[in-house]
Each structure stands twice: as structure tokens, then as C-alpha cells.
């Protein structure tokens, strides 16, 4: 395996679910727990990447923490931002701009009832002219259009798509921190019978709305060898930004994950068949199907056939979203940081009954907006 010379040395979640905590309180929980996981202190942090607090997210968080970092990033790209931050952090560490970078996010959207289904759309944009008049639910209606097109173009069925939600629940039943832990198994029939929100997607095809957050600590591989945990090397990364509106998309079934994952794998010197664990953004069931195809796990239009017969459930051939994902574990509005937390824990062998035996490589892929931004990170451990 190739490497970037940068490693993840600490990860943690904040409290999850319904917390009644402010955003900065949840941020503090995730950050202090991740630093403790790494055996580091706040005074060691000289790089900071976060978003979702305000227009000056990194500034506000740095002020709250009482630090003055040498390097910050507040790029807003939705759920893929945290995989982007890992790439930028690796570049900053290698360039000597920072020694220890903290990537974090938190949201209290469930307890604060702050989840928004829309936003301000500037006049004269394609969205204002061709999309807003139809009052779509953002982002749900857009993903529903992608799902509708996918089922039509490839002759797939709703039953097949439902398997993604069913598998996510099976993983969540192995994760005590999952929102749906203890809720019992989900069946294909349950998914199809749940309320229709935006055809063809029902409530069970949609991610959770929860509080929560996470943090990831990165430093040089050389320094990582002297710290508390097994270093998890950043092997490769890639990203693509494709569209703001659906008006600009030629093919709703083909996403920028094709390019981002190809770049990440080339940098890592690996192929997709070399990856032991895959953590992908599952804002909706269709997001998973499109992403698996874009990663090269299977061919175009083949994902829903590919995942049948328990292939992505616990014990299946393709360990996917092993914490239960955004569908059954946690979704605080921007889920990408928690993809990284689970990938690192799998590679460190810390996942108990959901542990993938002998996992040495992991892929985390974030998706933001309405299939708008795409970022892939490849991680690995030397056993």
C-alpha cells in the first residue's frame, strides 16, 4: 500500500440521538473524546476543520475551544465535507502548515427541531426558474427523481431497493449506539408499507433525523507511531463537485463518485477489490445503489441485483455501512464525519459483534447536497 505520510490517531462520537445539547456542547464532547482516544490534549491542536456552526464555523469553534490554529478549513460541501477535510488536512500536515489537525462536526437538529427541507434560492438561477415552482422537498424530492429514473432505466424494483434499508437495520442491531438499536429487524415489506414521502421513496428509504456528531484527529505517520492507538494511514483521497441543481445533470444515475473514488484508489495504489470495509453516505437508499456502482463494486444498473441474498448484511461478502449508517445508526444532517469514525474503528478492530475480521483497508465516501459533491478517502493499517 502507498501512503500519504499522514495518519488518523483518534476518533470519537458525541452523544447521539436526542441530546438536548447545544451544537458547541456536542462539538466539545466529540473533540475531547477524540483527543483522549489519541492520547493528545487541546494544546496539541494547531489545525481545525469544521462546518455547520455559522458562516465562520472554524473561527467560532476555535474561539470556543480557546485555541489559535495555524490552519483552518470551513468549506461547506454538505455531507462530503469531512472526507474533503481529511484530504486538505493531509496536505497541510505534509506541507508543514500544521502538525495535529482536528476535523469535527455536530448538530442538534432533532432536539432543536431545526431540520430544514429547503433554503433561500437566488432569483435567476436554474433552480429558481425550473425547480422551485414545483415546491420540491429538499433534498428528498431530488433523490426520489434519481430513484425513479434508476428503477425505470434499469428495470429494478422497489423490493430490491428496500434491501439497502433492511441491511442497514441488521448492522444497527449489532451497534448499541445506533438510534434503531433494539428496534427489531426491518423487512422488505416494512419498507414498502411505510408512508410514501416522495415517490418512490418511503420514510424507511430515508435517513434518520438525529442529534450527534464526531471528531477525527490526524497527524504525521512518524509522530503517530508514538501515540496511544494503532495509526490508521490515509492512503488516498479524491473529490468531485458536479452540480447545484438537477437542471444541470445530464444523467441522474451517474454521479461524481466515479471520479472521486478512481482518484482515491490510484493514489492508494489499490483497486476496489482490495478494500475490506466500505462506508458510504446513505442519505437515502438510492444513494447507496448509485455510489456502489460509481465505486466500481459492480456495473451500471447492477447494484440492486448485486446486493441481494444478504451480500451487504452482517456476514455477507461486502461489509457495508457496518454501524447501521444514516438509515439506522445516526444522521445529524451531515453524516460524513461518522463514516470516518466507523472506518477507523473497523481497522483498529474495535467494533465488537459487528467487527469485520482482519480488516486492513477501508473506504469512506461522502455525498453532499443533491448528489452535488463527492469525496472519497481510503484508509489502511499495517498488520
Automatic annotation (TrEMBL):
Pfam families linked: Thiolase_C_1
Gene3D superfamilies linked to this entry: 3.40.47.10
GO terms of molecular function: acyltransferase activity, transferring groups other than amino-acyl groups
Domain Thiolase C-terminal: start-end pairs: 238-380
The protein, known as: Thiolase
